[in-house]
Automatic annotation (TrEMBL), chains A, B:
This is Sorting nexin. It comes from Kryptolebias marmoratus (Mangrove killifish). InterPro entries: AH/BAR_dom_sf, PX_dom, PX_dom_sf, SH3-like_dom_sf, SH3_domain, Snx9_fam, SNX9_PX, SNX9_SH3. GO terms for cellular component: cytoplasmic vesicle membrane; plasma membrane. The keyword Protein transport applies. The keyword Protease does not apply. Residues 91-103 have a biased composition (Polar residues).
Length: 586, 586
């Protein structure tokens, strides 16, 4: 019996990947349901056969394949943390007693409408993971696949799952530039993908969870903050961690039906390489975001490929960006020393990885609870002082976001000109000079070989300059763009991070009223102020970390940029000098 | 009594020149008829008063102002040479006996339809002087004013005529570039303005006038041709003439109502400056074209101004181009030694000028008759050899014309880019870097002054580069364009010059038939072959002169261009190097 299915969402196949492009509303015939891993094989009306994400189609007959769970794209099968510590107050003033993970969100969701996303200055608000998969035409591959990132209770072996490089990051856009190169700028999401419905800690009333919690972190998890020359700072390790992302290798599974790229990551500590696919990076990103997102901006991973064009260039670019992302994480004293990050870099074998993975997914110190681990070695700050600082950071990050975006805009335009019309023009100048030289050669007049040779050389020089111009952006502008792109991503995380702080400030301001209405005790009120102070130290430490990195990064990238620009102009001058010398002095 | 007048042709006023813009069909009121010099003062319906060329309007009442001759724009008051020597054959085989100038053209005009213009590869054929004045919207000033360039019999004192800078050159186009600068390229006519109806010598059957003429030039006018290393060459003077065109001065007449620009021309021979207005250059051009046009390409004068915008820049540009034109004429051994050219450069006083002017206008050795003065010191060439040479020159000049136009096209595009979008882009890059520096300064973080200072300096460097880029074309591309523009003008003359030769070759080929039908004698036939040989030597000498100049000009301009380009890129590299040095090494 031929099984028919209805296509629910557009899906664009990645070339060379045995996938099948389908359109919403199309009817396909199921040819193989036992592919597994969220994929099924289908045939379209033109007889073409290929893989389609199974949650992109709806079987026409009631049918459940063995081992598949037929989830719907709107389902949010996110991790369900143990909520036993959620004894803080909720908007209903009824402490959430739920501790079994049975839809504890509804309590918070009610209050999270409009959430802290209001603080997000990104022009295009990011949807939640599952909400945008079908709507965004740029995302040609399944998003929020229900079988990936199962809750810790699920026994599904992620290590062996099938579809590669799932990206859950809400990238605002990803375009191919005129010149066919992967476009710089605008490819990173400008905000962290903090799913507002996902964690109580990120709902509008989120900070309360921490402000009034009774749980205290274990000593070994403590994150101290010291006051240094520049103000509050994180505790930095003696030797900064770093790693090298290299050697992308194509692997395949499902008897060659699906392929993936595996990267080799070698940390400077062990110098022992581990292998990871993009989906593992994405898993790490999700863990770091859950755990640290309230206190530390966790930038999105590099963009998902739009189409299969320029595959090699794409892999190279992704690797470079994964390297950038990993280096930035390595440089962060809190992130780099976390268990989950260390696991990612230094797991010994598959068993070790699986074990660590489950442990990380069960981590309870996530969301605003991260602040329970932070211990500033400094006197408590006045809430007014906290507010002032917070507003200053908000202003600065907003201004820098504008500045970075401006650089990306002009840089992108410059990139297009340098790789498009400008070299074409130099080429045409070169050709025109050479053509004239050919005409001159045909004159039949004696003794003009010196001129025609010199003209030909000059023409060729301009053709060489055309090539130099076209290739230069890859040598300098590329890095300037990448750095600014990274900062755009980082800065996009601040509205959420700062939003959490602002919500906490607001809650502390309500303190007297809450005491008066018996919602909290006087003791609670002073606890809240103390904890707000802790949050502020955390934000200040993070800002100082950010500033320090920013100064280093911009110094370095500007030096590199200008150095390459000097070389570029000097090379052109030298070439023209040589061309000039070939004309005879009269 | 208010005198009304009907406007016959559109006329656009030059700003600041007391002129009045009028439209065809408009009715104006004459406010002053005694202005003189071809102008009258009129008032339009909006009450605006200004000068209008009197032949652009038609008085509503029969009225003749004292001293005005009410000419019509279509009248061709060209010089009427003494035709007493026109005893050669004509198409009618009736030797033209007309010697009084009473419309001798009709005889030739019949045969000149379609004339040698067929050989002209210019896409836009040039009309005659008077034919296009009203039709061409680019010509905002009166063209072919009947009171200028009166025949030699007229007593009108040209020295004191009123309207300035009449251009009779048929410039194909004249545009203002996007950037507002006077556009390079396309501003010169690509053909000599040989009026086909004006001289029998230029009609299709023209060369016959010379091929069979009995008149022999006086010894003192002889133009010898020698055979040198490169082939036939003109006799070159020991010291090459040159001149400097400088010091443009604004003068005015008619009590300040009309203004004009007078240039100072100082020849290297006398070192004594003479003054000339554009109209005098134009008179010289007409004389040279009439006299030498069949044998020597006489390039058009620089373009007439389109509008009054950028007056200073326009005057500078015109002077530069007049200099280029004069230098080219000075470099030509035949042109520079001619009486009329010498008169222009070395007249002693007004009387001297007037006398010489009339004499030049009465010169009978014009058109193809110039060949009567040419005496090659070389054996007679076989007509087949002549044809081969002629075709070779035709091919070469056509090919070079294409090559030169290609350079002008790409150069013009490059000019626009370098003065328009490119510097704007560098400016925006500079501004973006400086903006980021300002944001960084506002961080409140300690110890980043070194970075922000360096960033500001780098940003300013890019603003300086923007300026360098925008100004560079004036320093190098300008000269490359001007040279190619000059050559475009020169090359545009060759189709006419070569056309005369081709017509002569055709006529000589007809020799046997003409003898058989008793139209010419056997003696005539061999005279024709001999004279064709003379024409060929003339063309070869001219081609060799052209090649020699071409090699010199392109060598020189390419050297200048590349030298300036080297300086340009070196300057940028040095500026960037300095900017780079301001970043701290980490």
């Amino acid at each position: 019996m031929a099984l028919k299915a209805q296509v629910l969402y557009d899906f664009t196949a990645e070339p060379g990947n045995n996938e099948l492009t389908v359109k919403e509303g199309e009817t396909v015939t199921i040819t193989n349901q036992s592919i597994g891993g969220g994929w099924i094989e289908a045939q379209n009306s033109r007889g073409e056969v290929g893989l389609v994400p199974e949650d992109y189609i709806e079987l026409s007959k009631a049918f459940q394949g063995a081992g598949t769970t037929a989830p719907t794209p709107s389902g949010g099968n996110v991790a369900s943390p143990d909520l036993s510590f959620f004894d803080a107050f909720a908007p209903s003033s009824t402490p959430a007693q739920a501790s079994n993970g049975n839809d504890p969100w509804s309590v918070w969701n009610a209050d999270s409408s409009g959430g802290s996303n209001n603080n997000n200055w990104a022009s295009k608000p990011e949807g939640t993971q599952t909400g945008r998969s079908a709507a965004d035409p740029w995302n040609s591959v399944p998003q929020g696949h229900p079988q990936a990132y199962q809750g810790p209770g699920a026994e599904f072996d992620e290590w062996d799952d099938e579809w590669d490089d799932k990206s859950t990051a809400g990238y605002a856009e990803s375009e191919l530039g005129e010149s066919g190169a992967i476009q710089r700028g605008g490819t990173h999401s400008s905000s962290m993908k903090i799913s507002l419905n996902k964690f109580p800690g990120f709902s509008k009333s989120g900070p309360e969870l921490y402000l009034l919690c009774k749980q205290i972190a274990k000593d070994k998890d403590k994150l101290p903050i010291y006051v240094g020359e520049v103000g509050p700072v994180w505790a930095y390790p003696e030797n900064q961690l770093d790693c090298i992302v290299a050697d992308p290798k194509k692997g395949s599974k499902m008897y060659g039906l699906k392929s993936y790229i595996e990267y080799q990551i070698t940390p400077s500590t062990t110098n022992r390489p581990v292998n990871h696919r993009y989906k593992h990076f994405d898993w790490l990103y999700e863990r770091l975001l859950d755990k640290f997102g309230s206190a530390i901006p966790i930038p999105s991973l590099p963009d998902k490929q739009v189409t299969g064009r320029f595959e090699e260039e794409f892999i190279k670019m992704r690797m470079e960006r994964l390297q950038g992302w990993m280096s930035r994480m390595c440089r962060h004293p809190v992130v780099s020393s976390s268990d989950v990050f260390q696991l990612f870099l230094t797991y010994k074998d598959e068993k070790d990885w699986k074990f660590g993975k489950r442990k990380a997914e069960k981590d309870e110190t996530v969301g605003v609870m991260i602040f329970t681990t932070i211990e500033p070695e400094a006197p408590e700050l006045d809430p007014l002082e906290v507010e002032k600082k917070c507003e200053q950071f908000s202003r600065f990050t907003k201004a820098m976001d504008d500045g970075v975006k401006e650089i990306l805009t002009v840089g992108n335009e410059h990139w297009k000109r340098c790789t498009g019309p400008l070299p074409k023009e130099y080429q045409r100048i070169g050709k025109a000079i050479q053509n004239l030289s050919s005409v001159f050669t045909s004159s039949g007049y004696q003794g003009e070989a010196a001129l025609t040779d010199a003209l030909t050389a000059a023409g060729k020089t301009y053709e060489e300059i055309a090539q130099l111009v076209a290739e230069q952006p890859k040598k300098d502008l590329h890095f300037l763009m990448e750095t600014n792109n990274e900062y755009k991503g980082l800065l996009g995380c601040f509205p959420d991070t700062i939003g959490v702080h602002k919500a906490a400030i607001d809650k502390v301001k309500e303190g007297d009223k809450l005491v008066a209405t018996n919602k909290i005790t006087t003791q609670d009120k002073s606890t809240m102020a103390k904890r707000l102070s802790t949050m502020s130290y955390s934000l200040q430490a993070e800002m100082n970390h950010f500033h320090n990195n920013r100064i280093y990064d911009y110094n370095r990238v500007m030096q590199l940029y200008l150095e390459e620009q000097v070389k570029f102009y000097e090379t052109i001058a030298a070439k023209l000098k040589h061309a000039h010398s070939q004309f005879t002095t009269m």
